Please model this.
Amino acid sequence: MTETGLAYRATGPAIGGDRPGDELVLLVPQAMRARRHPRAIAGVWAWETVLALLASGPTAVLARAAGHGDGPLWTAGGHALLDWLWHDIHGLRALLSGAEMVLVLAAIAGLVPMAALMAALTYARRDRRAAGFVQSLAAGSRAFPPMVLLLVLVEVLQALVVLAGGGLAFAVERWAHAGLGEARAEQVEGAVFLLFLTAASLVGVMHDLARAAVVRFRVTWIRALGLGARTLRASPVVLWWSWAWRALASVAPVLAVSAVASKIGGRGGFALGFLFALHQSVVGLRVGLRASWLARALRAVDRAGGNERRVPAIEGS
Amino acid sequence: MMRAVRWSALALLALASLAPQNEGVSVPLVQRGRDLDLPAPSSADAATPAAAFVTPLAGPAYDDDAALPAHADDVADYTLIATLDPIAHTVHGEGTITWRNTSTRPVRELWLHLYLNAFKNERSAFFRERVGGRGSEAPEDWGWIDVRKLVLRAGDDAPVDVWPTAEVHRAGDQDETDARVPLPRAIEPDETAHLDVVFDDKLPIVVERTGYRGHYHMVGQWFPKLARLEHDGTWAHFPFHHLAEFYADYGTYDVTLDVPADYLLGATGPVVESHVTGGRRIERHVQTDVHDFAWTAWDAWHSARENIDGVEVTLLYPPGFASLAQRELETLRFGLPYYSAHYGRYPYEVLTVVHPQEDAGESGGMEYPTFITTGGMWTTPPGLLAPEIVTLHEMGHQWFYGLVGTNELAWPFLDEGLNEFAEQDGMSKWRGDGSALDLGGLEVSDAALCAVSGAMGVHDEAVAQAANAFSTGQNYGSLVYGRTASVVETLRRVYGDEPVMRALGRYARRFRFQHPGPDELLAVFEEVLGSRIGATLRRALFEKGWVDYVVDGVTAEEVTRAAGVFDRDGQREKVETGQREGGGWDNSVLVRRRGTLAFPVDVDLMLADGTTRREHWDGEDESRRFSWRGSSAVRSAAVDPQDHVLIDANLENNRAGADGRGASATRTLERVTYWMQLALQAVSP
Model:
């Protein structure tokens, strides 16, 4: 398989497809852009929204029963809200447990929509149309087993890094406390911990690169891990920053909307509709930024592991 | 103290009710909070507050500062020299206590509080009464006070050391915080005695309010202190309880502090002399009209000074806490003038505010005359107003306990409770609805926190009881702080800001330096707000009074003609069941009041045409039905829609829809879904 311009010349077999032109081929790196796949991004948003609704629906039912609607719960001052939390604490605890279960399940099952998003980013049909929903989902499902293994391994690794960082940071704080004072010592502690968090995020970046390898090259989890590590080693700062600026950018709208939420109010009618639109814009933007990073990871891993390609690649539409 | 949640298992020390001490105060209404003879609310009292007011009693009304006393009765003066050894964490003290018998009886013994001994061992009353929260764990390093000498000089008698005959603890009780000192002869009424005292303190590692942490030293409850002698000649003495410690006579404290030269000092009262000699910093602080003295010394203090409302404020804070210090100064810029305006002018020249580090956090959130400690992490976000609340709370103690001198053990609600009310009122008027939390579009008020915390133990026991009579520390915290505050706040919301603030201000001014009890507080509230409202307050505080307003039924039935066969004008007419008549509606809303308290409330009736009808109910009866015929059907109803009755036991039943129809929860669904989406994105791969 050789690259000619923006397209790979198809010399190998394509994936699936019942009709001519439906089988999937790889896009060339330059064609893997999140902005070209709004429907895939919308799909991930829909997945998250459905899960969120499943988890939050019972809470809304409980709120509805509390005092004929939830209007008073959101009045300024929070008296009715606190009173409700206190009176319904047992029910809320049960709801919280349910929400926790949803979160745990989502952390694992969410691999499928994420892999499907990556498949949509990295594959196209031979006739240059974007990969279909079912095709992307099928590709995502195929990637699930190696991704689970990667998830477990990397999470353990990240936890070890964070724990080590926490322990060292705490020890440094204790050591510096008397000399520097509490605030300064805690700032040093924070700086030390931040270093380890950065290291953990580098592991996370390698994780995403390995996932990209799984989807793009359909390799085993251990081969993907090797490819991820090799890709990261080639340009660690550039890749980390590619991830980091998007991560930081995805926090900004959350903070911005939090700041204006109290001014909007959102107690009903237009204000509530506006707040809903604003919140969902934030969620959608964050999915988009995540997709943008995954596309970047796919491009990076393609360069590092070009000889792993087993399917033809095209420029895409 | 700030939200100390503790309780004591020791027997109630019943103190004699205070006799009326000022003009026009009526006969005591209560006796130790137990034997109440509560008059039923008089039907002659009008329901509206304006009609319920009564003419003020003769004499100054104390609604402004014109009649404020310039000084307290000088009963117990302390002239002390204290030398700190910051390595051994010891304080050597010596000096003279000058005390006058202000009772009507000769005194044959003195009671001396040695409260540093609370931290001497686990057999102290303080540690036996572990109730959770701060101060509940045994300190890593114990503290104590050893009195070396107590020489009595009275009249022409030869000086005699009375300490050898002192009884530091009772038989079978190893608590050493409450010492009885027999006297060789009686001290007659109005006679003055001098006590030359020498003592040595060993400070504990910071526990609850006093001690050291590294070079940091917070020195409270550190000297032998006379208990207060009541007018009838009985001593109001008690061991250092976990939940209460303050009650003493006013006097002048002239204290010279001797610390290493590189240490910065903060203490009660202004500095009148200061110099450095021989590597030591010597500072003399003199303060009149106070009943306690505390100080701090640390070689790492940063300080900020500012004149606020005529008061020289000194803020001591650790390095790196500058932004938090600014928030606390901002709080004082609001608080000092606000409290002076409402509760009487702050009479002292200085106020020292100490912000300990978190590793000495147990010494934060404490109050002493002209000297308070606050707290909070340097990382506290601006939207979390805990530092402001603690600062305002401790500053408020200058009035509610400091300037009135109430007995914290016997009536903690007069101290912490009224101060908690003042705190949440001040925070609300300063910071509005987000006076406790204003983050991410969520606004929670300090008043709401008080209301919910105060509701927790309301059916268990009364608010107005001794600190060590509470069955649990949680109930003490809930009832003394939260319930008292929300009861008074309910009066303020229902009957108006002006009369309630005037009542509390009148109480604080009239009884400045007077050691009032509950009788005095209730008398002033009755005086300003009327006997009916006074009785409500009494019932809420002494009788576990409670209230729950309920919308118990909302119905709307289309007006129909009576069915059947009718003979009219010689004609027989048959009317079918359900035949409409004019398109009108028969509406009915049933509202109930449960509980033993009653407040007038509004009732909102929401109609199908989008309008709202507001009705007023005096709340006196147990229920009230609003029935009317109109062109629009009632859809829902809400009792107390403006949340005036902060102590309403259950807000969930304050609203109901017609015929049990529910209402939407779209706001909750929208917010919780958004939060869940963000949580999912945080955990999702």
